[in-house]
């Protein structure tokens, strides 16, 4: 017969296991939603497809998410929150070791072209016509932009660049990248896009002065030294 402590321990394990199963099922559904948004598009997305792709029953889906709209907005929020966390880690790295505007532009291009903006193009039309859908997305989109801001401000601080002009560079970069990625839908031409990226990186680099390395200079002779000692130091320095 189990003691009271043992009974409580077993109950706690069961609760933890249930919580873990719930979290795992939710994660599978959220990931499946993003996969299908990217691969099939918003208009072709259905909850039976999502459940099948996630490997769960339709009953499990409706248990975790009350509607298709809730599932989609939660999936987009989850995706953007993970991307935003990566942005802040990159910002901390730039603040610690320095970096270049070229590095940031390349990072943004890779991040946006790795499914992120293709998924965005699928849900933006719905946000345009569905106010409730849009309102649920705005807070996490603002957090995403705060992550972008952290990266550019870290570089601006290292280089002594004007923060407001840096934000203009940031926003212009994002608009350029979004337009280029949208064009990739109809034009598969890496050289064409690489040429534009190289041109833009050259423009952006002009905004950020190079970091000035601190040089170690020989110490000046101390005023407390005798004239003979100062003369000797000057003789050594001149050799």
Structure description:
The structure is a single chain. With 239 residues, this protein is mainly alpha-helical. It has nine helices and no strands. Helix 1 packs across helix 2, helix 1 packs across helix 4 and helix 6 packs across helix 7. The longest helix is centred in the first third of the chain and has 37 residues. The protein is globular. The protein starts with a helix and ends with a helix. The C terminus is likely disordered.
Number of strands: 0
Low-confidence stretches: 214-239
Look at the helices and sheets and give the structural class: mainly alpha
N-C termini distance: 91 Å
Mean pLDDT: 87
Listing every helix as H and every strand as E from the N terminus to the C terminus, the arrangement reads HHHHHHHHH
Percent strand equals: under 5%
Apparent shape: globular
Helix percent reads over 70%
Radius of gyration: 28 Å
Q: How many helix segments?
A: 9
User: How many strands, what sense, and barrel or not for the largest sheet?
Assistant: none
């Amino acid at each position: 017969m189990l003691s009271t402590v043992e009974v409580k321990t077993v109950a706690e394990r069961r609760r933890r296991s249930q919580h873990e199963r719930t979290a795992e099922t939710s994660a599978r559904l959220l990931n499946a939603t993003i996969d299908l948004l990217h691969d099939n598009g918003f208009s072709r997305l259905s909850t039976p497809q999502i459940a099948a792709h996630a490997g769960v029953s339709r009953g499990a889906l409706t248990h975790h998410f009350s509607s298709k709209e809730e599932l989609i907005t939660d999936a987009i929020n989850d995706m953007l929150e993970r991307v935003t966390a990566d942005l802040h880690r990159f910002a901390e790295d730039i603040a610690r070791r320095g970096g270049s505007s070229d590095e940031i532009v390349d990072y943004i291009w890779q991040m946006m072209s790795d499914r992120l903006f293709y998924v965005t193009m699928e849900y933006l039309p719905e946000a345009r016509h569905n106010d409730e859908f849009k309102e649920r997305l705005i807070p996490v989109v603002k957090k995403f932009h705060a992550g972008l801001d952290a990266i550019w401000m870290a570089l601006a601080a290292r280089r002594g660049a004007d923060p407001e002009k840096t934000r203009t560079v940031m926003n212009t970069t994002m608009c350029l990248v979004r337009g280029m990625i949208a064009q990739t839908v109809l034009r598969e031409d890496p050289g064409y896009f690489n040429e534009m990226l190289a041109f833009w990186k050259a423009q952006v680099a002009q905004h950020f002065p190079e970091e000035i390395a601190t040089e170690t200079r020989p110490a000046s002779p101390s005023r407390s030294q005798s004239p003979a000692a100062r003369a000797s130091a000057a003789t050594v320095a001149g050799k």
